[in-house]
Amino acid sequence: xxxxxxxxxxxxxxxxxxxxxxxxxxxxxxxxxxxxxxxxxxxxxxxxxxxxxxxxxxxxxxxxxxxxxxxxxxxxxxxxxxxxxxxxxxxxxxxxxxxxxxxxxxxxxxxxxxxxxxxxxxxxxxxxxxxxxxxxxxxxxxxxxxxxxxxxxxxxxxxxxxxxxxxxxxxxxxxxxxxxxxxxxxxxxxxxxxxxxxxxxxxxxxxxxxxxxxxxxxxxxxxxxxxxxxxxxxxxxxxxxxxxxxxxxxxxxxxxxxxxxxxxxxxxxxxxxxxxxxxxxxxxxxxxxxxxxxxxxxxxxxxxxxxxxxxxxxxxxxxxxxxxxxxxxxxxxxxxxxxxxxx
Amino acid sequence: xxxxxxxxxxxxxxxxxxxxxxxxxxxxxxxxxxxxxxxxxxxxxxxxxxxxxxxxxxxxxxxxxxxxxxxxxxxxxxxxxxxxxxxxxxxxxxxxxxxxxxxxxxxxxxxxxxxxxxxxxxxxxxxxxxxxxxxxxxxxxxxxxxxxxxxxxxxxxxxxxxxxxxxxxxxxxxxxxxxxxxxxxxxxxxxxxxxxxxxxxxxxxxxxxxxxxxxxxxxxxxxxxxxxxxxxxxxxxxxxxxxxxxxxxxxxxxxxxxxxxxxxxxxxxxxxxxxxxxxxxxxxxxxxxxxxxxxxxxxxxxxxxxxxxxxxxxxxxxxxxxxxxxxxxxxxxxxxxxxxxxxxxxxxxxxxxxxxxxxxxxxxxxxxxxxxxxxxxxxxxxxxxxxxxxxxxxxxxxxxxxxxxxxxxxxxxxxxxxx
Lengths: 343, 419
Fold this sequence. Notes:
Largest interface: A-B, 30 and 25 residues
Number of helices of chain A: 13
Distance between the termini of chain B: 96 Å
Strand content of chain B: 5-15%
Number of domains of chain A: 1
Order of helices and strands of chain A: HEHHHHHHHHEHHHH
Largest sheet of chain A: 2 strands, antiparallel
Largest sheet of chain B: 3 strands, mixed
Strand order of the largest sheet of chain B: 1-3-2
Number of strands of chain A: 2
Oligomer: heterodimer
CATH topology of chain A: Cytochrome Bc1 Complex, Chain C
Radius of gyration of chain B: 27 Å
Strand content of chain A: under 5%
Radius of gyration of chain A: 22 Å
Number of helices of chain B: 20
Low-confidence stretches of chain A: none
Structural class of chain A: mainly alpha
Low-confidence stretches of chain B: none
Strand order of the largest sheet of chain A: 1-2
Shape of chain A: globular
């Protein structure tokens, strides 16, 4: 049988030991699948969404309540986006905790970091597109953070917001970034990332003589496993989206007062740090430092030993594991602190 | 990998799709309404189609819901749809009344003061409580005269015909005398912005315009359940005495403890239990509804600020009955634009015609539910009941009261009802 197009996207065989769910967590493949769901549901939403301040929230209400299956499509888009951020983080964690970023995969690790940033930016811009009372605080706080950057802050703010305060120009810019700028960049990086996976020799494994298990699975088996993961995750998303509606609040009006003073969940850790003082330091420098630190792992931390590749927690990259887990625990702790009800 | 796993997962996805479709069809079918006044589609009727039209003057096809109530017209989620309601379930609360009921085509802003109902109601003594506050502050030495300086809310008088141009908001916390602080806490329970002291009973009323115009008490003395919108979605000018009764004559203020003592006996017999036990009243005062005699200006003000109830309440026995030497004032309706016709239209208990002669107050306000009959006697139709009453002038009767002392107190001396 000649391989189909979809089979051809995969290598003819891959090592059986590293193809198991307990090693990959299916996170890379799921990230691609979730991105495709987001593309399709996002395209459908574009038929109804009106990117102007007075129409945005109303058009989302129309889509959600009045368009047949519109609410389902919007809920799918919302939940898939949240899971994409989680799955991307899990993917990053898997790569660090297995030492899979070792050369020659350092460049692809950086591309992956870029995709994580894009996933978060896409989630944030999509969140802002709601343009309702629920996002007002995060929009004002988030854009004001940009202003706090010395020297270039004001220019960056004007570039981002399109004026001296959020308004129609801001919404159309966020819309442009969401549906085109960031999406295009993400599409290119996804293609590059998957291409590099193949070019760098597929999934990270020790050199052939050092492998304990020489068995391999075929691309047909791999595709079957991927289809199974897609079917199960699609079912889960469908059920979640049928019963858990995506957040929606009243439109922003000149006289309304925002009830919510809370960032979207993936920025709650930053929100909690902002309470510590200097917004530029805690809101810009520290998050960027975390990003830079994570990105430098393949370059400055001790390299994972080749014989230890292809398994969890190799001894040779302990330092990277400890750093990544400490960052993760700090982020979770800060998020939980931010979620505490105000006393 | 075993192939049945793929088959099972496919069946799961199919089930997921079926559940999603089932969930989608559980939603009620949207009911659209595009009121002619706004031209903006709203879907409130999807859930509220059982609601009675609020009044004949506010047809739902013309007004819809959102123009008065606010809310999210497109949302079919109750929490979201109701999140921007003006004044919760009562858009006529004075904090939001301008947005809900105002507008130059509606109840504010017209040049004729008789149409500027919001200005009238918010400056009225029922809203400001200015007289009570002034008397209390004067009594406890917080001010040196009885002049009205404070109201429940800060308010301006745009006409300023009464000499009082504005009232400051009364702040009990700013008072030094503890009695005045207690007064502020316990005794400001009846003005038009105050929440009723009890709900679900004879004190139950809304705030703002709805305090009077939305009946929360039925005429047969059974409290209406105000928690069900279907029972109270009503605006009327046919206001029964039971509605006035939610504030007036339903208890006493104890000036020693500065507390309100509610009446525990429900009004079962209007003659026995209505009014305070020591009060004197005449037959018409417990047979008629309050609004049969007391005019809209007395109740809702005339747009100017007053410092005391006495300055605005002026209906006396003589208004309808005259004196020994004078007949009550009357007016022949020759102008089709006479206010009397407008008022009769809003509450059509009488069929007023051009050429009819009606009684008028000393200020010339039409008592549009009265009529002078050809034989020189008078007729009054109950505004809330439609009941027809006949009555006679004092002139020509056996009354011996002198012509100078004509306030109602004097009439009560002979004409009060025994109980």
